Amino acid sequence: MYPTLHLYIDGQFINADGRREQDVLNPATGAVIGKLPHANTEDLDQALTAAARAFESWKKTSPLDRSKVLRKVAELARERAQDIGHGMTLDQGKPLAESVGEVMFCAEHAEWHAEECRRIYGRVIPARQDRVRQLVLREPVGVCAAFSPWNFPFNQAIRKIAAAVGAGCTLVLKGPEDAPSAVVALARLFHDAGLPPGVLNLVWGVPHEVSEHLINSPIVRKISFTGSVGVGKLLAAKAASLMKRSTMELGGHAPVIVCDDADIDAAVKQLVPYKFRNAGQVCVSPTRFYVQEGAYERFVEGFVAKTKALKVGDGLLPDTRMGPLAQARRVSAIAGFIDDAQTRGATVLAGGAPMPGAGSFFAPTVITDLPEDSRLMTEEPFGPVAGIVRFKSLDDALIRANSLPFGLAAYAFTGSSRNAQAIGNGLQAGMVSINHLGLALAETPFGGIKDSGIGSEGGSETFDGYLNTKFITQLD
């Protein structure tokens, strides 16, 4: 059964009760599985008022108390992972194992923030004058507005909530209307863990209407957004015009450099499932594969064979390894990339078309012989399609990998420590993973550069965007 959906404002779960509702669809079947209530203007104002009121007391709480709440959330998340994951597979589409794994993995984010929030330190600066005391304090920035995406609904929301709550801030979160169940479940976790009313508020609605209302409110002092580059730039510009701090985790178009000296079998074994997890709807998904000439044929052969072996189907079926795209509109969007590539003379070696039958399924696709100006090599596809091209020298690969305005994630495989150092230093990305796939851990920073964003979530940097720095100098 699909769970009932709610708003969550000032500690209360709120039903539709005459509010506008939106159909929630199962992307594997196209069937309506739920109704999502939209917040009206009064709801948004109530959420903002509740967050402002709660901030006055929450900012004064002991980090130990905040830590207890976050630890309890982690415990409850593990207990309820199967049910939360089932709902996520129904409305988002990813295989059940991925959905449950997302919840279990994110319990670590709650625990990490529970520990790190106890280590938000200031410092004492030695004074130049006797009897002067100089202190630096870190204080919560205030009420935050956060916007989380549909591709990892639990993961992306808990990162924002845990950072805000751990820092002593309060939050109004607009979750993804296409995949809402995991975020409603997340609000329930914090509610049951004892988070005071108003510290977390969850709203839904027409995205641009909700974002405009929240960002324009003088109550809000910090914006956090995960989503596309275009929307992120609009929200960042609006926040900047009002002198409000923002954290932006935006799109990517991750390059993969595979050198001649790499362990090709190991690279293929890791990259194929990583490329097609969540049907490629991952901001750090590897999308542009640059393979050195000596390894090219072997890499392509292995990559195509493993791609064709992937079982695509309903995420609730136990043998499914890739589910549907999250929305029907994504099917036509991916088809557009394929059409452009074929028009430009590229070769489709696997997939290349929507799959027959009900649901938003698109076959896992591998394309070679792509020109550098093709859409697949210049625009983020956000779907199950990989483009593979050759390179001669490492310098050439780095120039091509860095040629786009994106700078979120990048990957490389090489057996040479010299190559590894050159790649790590040379790739223009916020995150670089060499010879394995080691991103997005709770204890490591997650974020991009260039058009891919501002700021990081996770790691010791996680609270930077949620804290003000105050200097106090006092003469005794």
Write a brief structural summary.
With 476 residues, this protein is of the alpha/beta class. 39% of the residues lie in helices and 21% in strands.
CATH class of the largest domain: Alpha Beta
Number of structural domains: 2
Biggest sheet strand order reads 14-15-16-13-12-17-18
The second-level CATH architecture of the largest domain is: 3-Layer(aba) Sandwich
Helix proportion of residues, in percent? 25-40%
- From the alpha carbons, calculate the radius of gyration and give it in angstroms: 23 Å
Uncertain spans: none
Tell me the overall shape: globular
Distance between the termini: 66 Å
CATH topology of the largest domain: Aldehyde Dehydrogenase, Chain A, domain 1
Strand percent estimate = 15-25%
Largest sheet: 7 strands, mixed
Superfamily (CATH H level) name of the largest domain: Aldehyde Dehydrogenase, Chain A, domain 1
Task: Look at the helices and sheets and give the structural class.
Answer: alpha/beta
Nearest-integer average pLDDT: 98
Quantity of strands, as a count: 20
- Discrete helix count: 14
